[in-house]
Specification:
Strand order of the largest sheet: 1-2-11-3-10-9-4-8-6-7-5
Family: Belongs to the UTP25 family.
Radius of gyration: 28 Å
Strand content: 5-15%
Subunit structure: Interacts with CAPN3; the interaction is required for CAPN3 translocation to the nucleolus.
Protein name: U3 small nucleolar RNA-associated protein 25 homolog
Largest sheet: 11 strands, mixed
Keywords: Developmental protein, Nucleus, Phosphoprotein
Low-confidence stretches: 25-159, 185-190
Structural class: alpha/beta
Organism: Struthidea cinerea
């Protein structure tokens, strides 16, 4: 409540228009958090603030963004001059309504000119929280270098991050015992239990050495729903896993309450024609859970927020909760046995836990995702309406992770997939510990008292900290047994380095004992073999080399890995609805590391000269990488080309001006970044020539950008062009755009490929 009260007090001093502006820019980072961060920075940095209008005369300041303090970055995004409020209203209507008339845009552009005076454009490149990779929370963690949480040191008078210490003894695994009526006292005796089989497996030193040195062997299999699967393992070939055509809940060895609650919770995804006796899983869930329950690593790159996203979330929530309940039941059962054992009994029979308590780490991009996961947990634990589970701090959780529907601008129109991804509270800096004990759930549990940790990459990154920081902690990651990374493709649009940083610090030996009873710790944890028992579940909307690298190089599960590797047959080019000639120009590169320089040289030597003529005006250059964008922008400035630019860091007023200049032909080129399109999805009018500097990360962005040409009512369809640069290292992206058959032909041939697509191909 303190955080929201502070935000509302500051909010009351803002005008109605400023509030609307903040609400829109809260698409990724809610403005309550922005205002709080200003308070935190002001209290943490006792320096006098300078006017944010004192910016350099050149927009090159964007390349030197790290020299600007976090305080000024945040201040610049909230500062609005009173006399420009009317202009901002026009700016917003232009940005929010993609189908506005040309006359309206011209009117808005003329009004924006007055706003641009006084060095406004000089500040275009100051990052904004909701669009930048370096979000406000990252800036705070980098500037303060305290690493652990978003709050400042208590000596500054700011309250630290909330954790629930009130219910510590109630949820302690050491002091509680198995309840007789739970019916799980003998759960550890079920030898066919996949959990027990996986965790009780004792590896030998030679097997560990083999996994560390030898390459994995792989085999293929075709499943009805998942398609082509690649099974890989370093140890001896395991028994081939086959898809279960029918699944009996009782044969899955689920923890007792889940057997009865899962069919009811999952009913919403089942077909209305299914009979009650049919499988409680959808075909997709059945095959995914079959792999999950075998404790193999899994990479599924076909997650879709519109179609199967919630199905997948329910499946991995069931698996994670089942794992935690079984693990805790084993500990509580052994507590009871230890209490009743005779003196002198060997205590090695009770090794049932890790060096730290957290067992499951779930990485999700937004608070809304964490909210849905917790709600799924609660639904799975409540046997019926009469037996409600006790959830500590539930009201606080809903307040901090929920969203206000009124905060969303009413006239904001975006594609369906955008609405699905950015639904609810999309703050990307959070972490929360969850403890589950029999019939109770504890939210905001301290990490070392939690069973499950739900966090964003940024939220977990600021806890881990960086080398050299005095306040950092990653011991709680030492005994993670299940790692779930959902919506991995979104992290490519945020900051992938946070994911890599996490993978480097998971399953390391802790630096402190944290009060653990070593007589209860499994030998696999004491031997520092935790990573060989950890199951990693990776879900993404696409296949990408960076995601593949994490799955191939950071997953060491002794059981093996399973990756879904289906190839696209048609590609997103078939969704282009305008008649447009597509020219795919191949560039040569000696290696993956040299392809960046090779692409730039190819572009300035071969492609750009063809577009310098004034007749080739209205040329949009789509650039997926921000670093490539900066390089091109600097080159265009050096060559004094007539261009404008829009990136994820560009301020809203500058975006409107750039769109107007490009539409009217006052600027010949428009540099346009992929991240800006991901976060905003604006329709850019006036495009006549398209250049894809690199193939898009999301294949459907290709057709979306191409279809923007239909927004230009100029009657010059015959002059439209589309040029795409690609290399042999872009095979995956190329297949997603043109299909696997065309990709094979294009990679074999070194000539340029001309395609003419009418939308029916």
């Amino acid at each position: 409540m303190g955080k929201r009260r502070a935000g509302r007090e500051l909010l009351s001093s803002l005008s109605k228009k400023q509030k609307k502006h903040l609400r829109e820019f809260g698409e990724e980072h809610p403005f309550y958090d922005k205002l709080l961060l200003l308070l935190l920075l002001h209290s943490c940095f006792p320096f006098q603030s300078e006017d944010s209008d004192k910016s350099s005369a050149e927009s090159d300041s964007e390349t030197e963004v790290e020299q600007v303090s976090g305080y000024h970055k945040l201040l610049a995004t909230l500062k609005t001059s009173p006399e420009s409020e009317s202009e901002e209203e026009e700016d917003e209507s232009e940005s929010e309504e993609a189908d506005e008339s040309e006359a309206e845009m011209d009117s808005e552009g003329s009004q924006e000119t007055g706003e641009a005076e006084g060095g406004e454009e000089d500040k275009n490149d100051v990052p904004e929280e909701e669009e930048a990779t370096d979000t406000a929370e990252q800036i705070l963690s980098q500037e303060q270098a305290d690493g652990t949480d978003t709050s400042c040191d208590p000596r500054h008078g700011v309250i630290e991050e909330f954790t629930d210490v009130k219910h510590e003894s109630e949820f302690s695994l050491e002091t509680n015992f198995m309840e007789e009526e739970s019916g799980d006292c003998n759960a550890d005796k079920r030898d066919s239990n996949p959990f027990k089989q996986h965790m009780d497996k004792e590896l030998e030193d030679k097997e560990i050495e083999k996994m560390s040195t030898l390459r994995k062997t792989s085999s293929q299999s075709q499943w009805p729903r998942l398609g082509q699967l690649i099974f890989s393992s370093t140890l001896e070939k395991h028994k081939t896993l086959k898809a279960d055509k029918e699944v009996d809940v009782k044969q899955l060895h689920l923890h007792k309450p889940l057997e009865s609650t899962w069919p009811k919770v999952n009913k919403q995804f089942l077909s209305s024609v299914d009979k009650p006796s049919d499988s409680p899983f959808t075909p997709l869930q059945r095959e995914l859970f079959c792999i999950m329950n075998s404790y193999r690593d899994l990479f599924y790159p076909e997650r879709n927020a519109l179609t199967n996203g919630e199905e997948i979330r329910h499946a991995y929530c069931l698996h994670a909760l089942n794992h935690v309940l079984k693990a805790n039941a084993q500990v509580l059962s052994n507590n009871t046995k230890r209490r009743d054992r005779k003196p002198g009994t060997d205590t090695d029979d009770y090794r049932d836990q890790g060096l730290t308590r957290p067992k499951v780490l779930m990485i999700v991009p937004f608070r809304e995702c964490a909210l849905r996961i917790v709600h799924t947990f609660i639904s799975l634990l409540e046997v019926n309406d009469k037996k409600k589970i006790d959830v500590s701090n539930k009201k606080r959780f809903k307040g901090e992770f929920g969203s206000d529907p009124e905060e969303k601008p009413p006239n904001l129109k975006r594609p369906e997939d955008y609405e699905a991804i950015f639904a609810g509270n999309i703050d990307d800096h959070f972490r929360i510990g969850v403890a589950i004990l029999q019939k109770s759930m504890r939210l905001y549990a301290p990490f070392y008292s939690s069973d499950i940790i739900i966090a964003s990459p940024l939220g977990i990154r600021t806890v881990i900290g960086a080398e050299g920081e005095t306040k950092r902690d990653f011991d709680f990651l030492s005994s993670i047994e299940i790692l779930i990374i959902d919506q991995a493709d979104v992290y490519l649009m945020q900051n992938w380095e946070h994911v890599l940083h996490l993978m480097k610090h998971i399953n390391l030996l802790p630096l402190d004992s944290h009060g653990v009873d070593f007589s209860r710790v499994r030998m696999l944890n004491l031997n520092n073999w935790s990573k060989y028992y950890r199951q990693t579940l990776l879900f993404s909307a696409l296949q990408d080399p960076q995601i593949n690298f994490v799955f191939n190089k950071h997953c060491f599960n002794y059981v093996g890995q399973v990756a879904v590797r289906n190839v696209p047959l048609t590609g997103s080019i078939s969704h282009v609805v305008v008649q447009l000639p597509h020219v795919f120009r191949r560039l040569e590169a000696e290696s993956v590391t040299s392809v960046i320089d090779s692409r730039f040289q190819f572009f300035i030597d071969k492609v750009l000269p063809e577009y310098r003529d004034a007749i080739m005006s209205h040329t949009l250059i789509y650039v997926p990488s921000y670093f490539d964008y900066v390089r091109l922008r600097n080159y265009f400035k050096k060559e004094d080309l007539n261009f404008t630019h829009i990136c994820e860091y560009t301020k809203k007023a500058a975006v409107c001006r750039a769109r107007r200049f490009f539409l009217k032909g006052e600027k010949q080129f428009l540099l346009f970044t992929e991240r800006f399109h991901f976060y905003k999805r604006y329709t850019i009018k006036g495009i006549r020539n398209l250049i894809f500097y690199e193939l898009p990360t999301y294949s459907h962005f290709y057709s979306e950008i191409c279809n923007m040409l239909k927004a230009t009512d100029s009657g010059v369809d015959a002059t439209w062009t589309c040029t795409v640069l690609y290399s042999k290292y872009d095979a995956q992206k190329l297949a997603a755009v043109v299909g696997i058959d065309r990709t094979a032909q294009m990679l074999q041939s070194k000539k340029n490929v001309h395609l003419f697509v009418t939308g029916e191909n």
